[in-house]
Amino acid sequence: MLNKYKKYFLITKNSILTTATYRFHFFFSIISSILYFIIYYFLWYSIYNSSGNTILNGMTFSQVIVYICLAYSIFILFKTWTEWGISRNIISGQIMMDLVKPYNFHQANLANALGFVLFNFICITIPVFLIIFTMFNSTIIFGINLIFFAISLCFAFLISFSIDYSIGLTSFYTESIWGISITKEVVIMALSGTLIPLSFFPDSIELILKFLPFAAMYHIPVNIVINSTLSILDYFIMFSIQLFWIIFLIILNKYFFKHAIKVVTINGG
Question: Residue 141 in contact with residue 227, Cβ under 8 Å?
Fold first, then answer.
């Protein structure tokens, strides 16, 4: 069994080593994250200060800051460039070698994405979490929910990867996915709670957004960390939503890939 997956372990290892060589990208991610947190800190401080209330839409100022910072950290964590890698290989012709190699194309891309996530988790997510904990430790709920958070984060990664992978498969038809990928990021950030907590949306819209895959990627893991009123039923519902989207996207991508490889055009050599 281990020998069967050894090749995927090697792909993950190579992905980590490759990511580590791009030091400029690492420092840029750290700096941009810090600037993002500073801007949103003062933005929401102004909103709460001007409102004269300590609680807006059921959330305190500290909860909003932790929510947004954690959501954005997860957004950076899941930045694996999967769709860009597939598109680049199609344009260069490398995709031909990827398709004839003795491994599953989907699993190979998943292993490669996992390498990015592990590197980002160690070098970006953990430092950011420590900063948030130092500043807002009273807002973060500690206990068994952290185990649920870890499980939810793994589910969220699978959803995020599946969406990126499906965008990558569209490059079998379009080659370039620049516009599609940028649109995907804008939609996800707007509808997932990364920019604005979902509780600030109108109730009818919030209810719809909570059942979309975007919320399953960011809102659900973060909500587990900051919400102390969650019941077993709440956890069951949230995990059910995540599992539904994982299964749905895996089936969709399997069907999509089966048809996409029939139309791929090799331009390189």
Answer: yes
Summarize the confidence of residues 170-184 as an average pLDDT.
89
- Tokens at 104, concatenated: 């599953």
Count of domains for the chain: 1
Is residue 5 predicted with pLDDT exceeding 90? no
Distance separating alpha carbons of residues 76 and 72, to the nearest angstrom: 6
| Cα separation, 194 vs 202, whole angstroms | 16
User: In this structure, what token pair is assigned to residue 138?
Assistant: 């009273």
Structural domain contains residue 266: no
State the DSSP code for 100: H
What pLDDT digit, counting tens, does each position of 185-210 carry? Answer: 999 988 998 888 998 999 999 999 99
Q: Domain of 72?
A: 2-260
Closest CA to 65 of 87, 96, 36: 36
Which tens digits make up the pLDDT trace of 59-89?
Answer: 888 889 888 888 888 988 998 989 999 999 9
Non-local (6+) Cβ contacts of 28 within 8 A are none
Cα Rg of the chain, angstroms: 20
Does 217 reside within a domain?
yes
